[in-house]
Structures are given as structure tokens and as C-alpha cells.
Amino acid sequence: MTTTDSAGAAPSQGGERPLGTEDALREHFDATIARDQRIEPRDWMPEGYRKTLVRQIAQHAHSEIIGMQPEGEWITKAPSLRRKAILFAKVQDEAGHGLYLYSAAETLGADRADLTRRLIEGRQKYSSIFNYPTESFADVGVIGWFVDGAAICNQVPLCRSSYGPYARAMVRICKEESFHQRQGYELLLTMMRGTEAQRAMVQDAVDRWWWPSLMMFGPPDDASPNSAQSMAWKIKRHSNDELRQRFVDMTVPQADKLGVTLPDPELRWNEQRGRHDFGTPDWAELKRVITGDGPCNDQRMERRRTAHEEGAWVREAATAHAARRSERARKGTAA
Ligand code: FAQ
């Protein structure tokens, strides 16, 4: 819903303040957030709100694009044509998610080429989870189950984010992530019905991906500098710890059904809380991975840089083609 008139000015607040003054605009913005309505691109917004959104959406877009790499490595090694086709489709979906998100960032005045440059120069982040290696085909299943599962927990509430274009992009992304999670779980169910060696591969992948998946939700609430303001603006709807807890509660029964053990000796049902207790992730590890010192950071960034450089001719050709088409259209109109 658009909250201002077509000229971008806020409606009068009972005639108390002149239209368009910063105070009146801010009041209108605050009231829109308080009413749980959406902020749209042409609405006035505080600079901090815009910057926070560009930061989060850009990091999210970069994560989707870099996130193609760990599973992408297995496309040529998938054990059957069916698995290859499924994985191909999933990895392509992630590229699509990145593109919707860059478009959402552009509605805030960001420039996609500039965001990509910032990523490549190491000035913007992407999710820690994609800095871990995929050692076996079971990792493909576990990424679908854990990583897409965590993405769903985190992103379903973002469908109600206060910024319209971000919230709407999330609706489609979440539908696709649900499919991704199911394909991962179905792959694991198949492997668990297979040989002893296959079951061991699944358990090994679970052991390696569990803690990094919990870290995807970000630092604990008391060490999360952005959460309070992002929640006040209703960009984020729940805290990092709340979403992490939801993920654990959702995943434990799925692990039981699958027949794997989650690698946390402190994990148990807490009758009083009606939720699971679980151990503390290694926050020092999260910090190291975010700051560039994870197992695959260098490899991921190197591939991203190479892909960008090797794609330069495609961007140039597409730009030249678009210019020629619009020139032809202009001449056609003039004729
Ligand atoms: N990794 O104050 P907070 C996917 C940074 S998409 C790296 O708590 P905030 C799909 C944070 O940016 C996965 N950095 O920050 C897929 C901030 O840094 P800054 C991506 C992290 O923003 C599946 C600083 O630490 N999803 O999986 C991480 O309020 C399979 C302080 O943290 C999204 O981006 C981390 N894990 O909350 C694709 C979802 N955690 O900028 C392929 C949208 C924190 O101040 C295959 N994003 N940081 O320098 C969000 O919900 C939020 O941005 C959080 C972080 C929750 C990630």
C-alpha cells in the first residue's frame, strides 16, 4: 500500500504541521509503521531506515548468489540424471532470488553494479554458511534440509517486513525455499534407506552442518547491534535468538524421523518452556567466518570475482544491444 500521494508528500496531520516538513513526514512514516502498513519506494523514509534495508537486502542478495557455489560443485557429480536435474533447478532458483533482491535494493536507490563491486572488494558481507565445504553428496541433502530450512524460518516473517518490495520478493522466495527444503529431506530419506555407508555419509554431513546452520541466524541477541532498531522499524519481525529457537524446535522431530542424531549433547525437550534447550554455538567461529577466515572464504570470493570478470563481455554486449534497440525504437517513433 502506498502511504503518500503521488507527489510523495505526506497527507496533512490534522493541519497541525505544514505539509512536507521533515517532522510531518517522520510522523507519517512512524504512523504507517505503527499501523503495520507498508512503506513503498516513493514514500519518505528516514535515511537510517533506507541504509539498513540496503545493507540487509544487499547481504541477502549476495548470499543467494554466493550460495550457488557449494551445491553447484555437485551438479556434474550428481549420482543420477534425476538428481542432476533437481539440483540444477535449485541452484538456478538461488540465482533468481539474488536477482529479485538486487531489484528490491534498486528501489531504494542502490545500484546493482555498485553493490556487486562492494561485495567483490570485501566491503559487503554474505552469509557465513556458504563458507563451509561440501564434502559429499549427502551435503546437498543436508543443505536443503538445514540451510533452506533455516532460510524459511528467517524469511517467512520477512514476508511481513515493513518495506513493500522486500516483503513481496520474500513471498516467492519462500515458496521456492520450501521446495528446496523438501527436496533435501527427500534425498536424505532415500540415502537413509540405502546402505550403511550412505547412512554414515548422512550422519557425517549432519555433524558438520548443524552448528554452522545455527550460526546463520546471526549473533546472540545481546551481541546483535542492528536488531533493536530493525525490529522497531519492523524490518525484522523476530530476534536472532527467537528464530534460532524456532529452527531447533522444527528440526528435532524431523531428525528423529530421519534417524540421525543432532550433534549437541545439551539438546533436550524442556517441559516448562515447551521448547528445546540446546547448546551454545561457537560465537568465536562465527566471528572468524564473517570476517573472512572461514574454511572456504577465499575460494568463494575468488570464484565470484572470476565469474564477474569473465561475464564482462556479456554485460557490455547486453548494454550495447539495449542501446541499439532503444535507438531503433526512437527513430521508429520519430518516423
Ligand atoms: N553471516 O546485528 P546483527 C539462503 C552480520 S539466504 C554473515 O544481528 P542483522 C538461501 C550482520 O550482517 C541466507 N554476517 O545483524 C539459500 C551484521 O553486520 P553489519 C542469507 C552475519 O542484519 C539457501 C553483524 O553481523 N539470509 O540461505 C551473519 O540485524 C541454500 C551483526 O549482526 C539473509 O540474509 C551471518 N550468519 O541480522 C541460498 C536473510 N549474521 O552489516 C543457497 C536476511 C549476522 O552490521 C542455498 N537477513 N551477520 O556489518 C537477516 O535476516 C539479517 O540480516 C541477519 C542478521 C539475521 C542475517
From TrEMBL:
This is 1,2-phenylacetyl-CoA epoxidase subunit A. The keyword Oxidoreductase applies. Residues 1-22, 294-335 are annotated as: Disordered. Signal peptide: none annotated. NCBIfam families: PA_CoA_Oxy1 (TIGR02156). GO terms for molecular function: phenylacetyl-CoA 1,2-epoxidase activity. Its EC number is 1.14.13.149. The gene is paaA. SUPFAM superfamilies: Ferritin-like. GO terms for biological process: phenylacetate catabolic process. Keywords: Oxidoreductase. It holds the Pfam family PaaA_PaaC. The keyword Oxidoreductase applies. InterPro entries: Aromatic_CoA_ox/epox, Ferritin-like, Ferritin-like_SF, PaaA, PaaA_PaaC. It comes from Streptomyces phaeolivaceus. Residues 324-335 have a biased composition (Basic and acidic residues). One of its GO terms (cellular component) is cytosol. It is an enzyme of class 1 (oxidoreductase).
